[in-house]
# Entry
Amino acid sequence: MERKMRMLQVKHLTVTHKKDLTTLIEGLSFTLSPGDRAAVIGEEGNGKSTLLRLLYDPAALEPYAEWTGEIVDQGLRKGYLAQELSPDELALPVWEFCQRAPAFDPADPGALDRAARQVGLDASLFWDDRPMSTLSGGERVKLRLALLTLDQPDVLLLDEPSNDLDVSTLEWLEQFLLNCKVPVLYISHDEPLLECTANLILHLERLRRRTAPRCTVARMGYAQYVEQRAAGFAHQEQTARKERAEYAAKMEKYRQIRDAVDHQLNTVSRQNPGKGRLLKKKMHTVLSMGQRFEREKENMTALPEWEEAILTAFDADKAALPAGKTVLRLDLPELQAGERLLARDVRLWVDGPEHIGIVGANGAGKSTLLKLAAEELLPRTDIRAAYMPQNYNELLLGNRTPVELLAPSGHKDDVTRARTLLGSMKYKAEEMEHPAAALSGGQRAKLLFLSMVLDGANVLVLDEPTRNFSPLSAPVIREVLAQFPGAIVSVSHDRLYLEQVCTRVLELTKDGLTPWYG
# Structure
């Protein structure tokens, strides 16, 4: 029997951090119905993941946040895809991880096979005894999506489902979302995916130095939302500036009249009391006119406010590399992950300020290859290499704060510079003192990006560099990397990154690296 489709409603939702009483979301109301593909967008740290966790399980917020408002879910069966797996989950064998999914054991072989084929996986992966941590990021996302579909949820809550997916699986995800019969609320930083799939936008912002939250709900596609938002802001700014110019002109004329009447009052003869009374009456009228202008000022169109994109850049002199510089000569007869052979005859040569992008199917060994490249480049003394892994915790272990990570010396000047750079990346003062490991994925990505800027790196080894940057920040990051005068060796499935940043794109297959034309 077909289940009755029901709606998810959120009414006047406000979410506040317990630690520093920062309000992340205020007054959010929306309804999610069958056929809705609602994309949650906004800068890093604005509460997007927190919103999805709250809708799935309000108790999950208790350790760090509190909320008010109403969530009407009518007993909906919710399928939730978290942005990251916990360390305990990553340590589990694949088969044991699958066993923990409620719908896995009751599923018959046919259902398991269909779920695997939906996401381009071999069904045998369900019974693999490798730890989850050894799967590629894309394989983990595909596996979790397959397990979600087995449970036949009434609503899907997906936190960054596009992270780490290869291009062909991104295309599958687009079709999956377009054909989904149940409502979907998802977070994604992949702009082409948003443009292709979203028909409802939830935009979470924090204005005025990230102290004033604003929620916008727009029932339209992403491209239309961006266009209308920009046009609306332009019209609002034009109207506001025109009103202010007219107000300034009226106030200047008012001041001239007031000053003239005031001068006459000060010079009128005591022997002419009648004229004095007339001038006082006139001054009363003039002052009333000034009060009316002040009231008009209160009703003027406000200048538009929006959350500005991040702003940072590399030092062009420090990052520059000469055109003939040999950056990397990596020749691998075999590329392996443990005992598994991934590819043969891999040849990765990089010269001068080349920007290399590496693509390939999930599990092809791209991250493994990039780690080997980093191991070659980081010890070199003739270059300054920096590595940004896919798993940020490899470099952000412990409870150190962003300031401590960027200014380990603790010297006053270093701390000041670190705080200035963090401010350019839209960190609040309180967030600069949070443990780095507790920050959102996007905030940690910003932190690693800043560390590369501070180190004066001229060779960047980047594993999915834009994966956690918002649609607002990602264009800025792409522009900064496109203008980077040093060398970049990167793995990415971001189609705009490959087009705008990379001077050469290679595909990793079982037979090595070959040119990729997209």
About this structure: The CA atoms of residues 40 and 202 lie 5 Å apart.
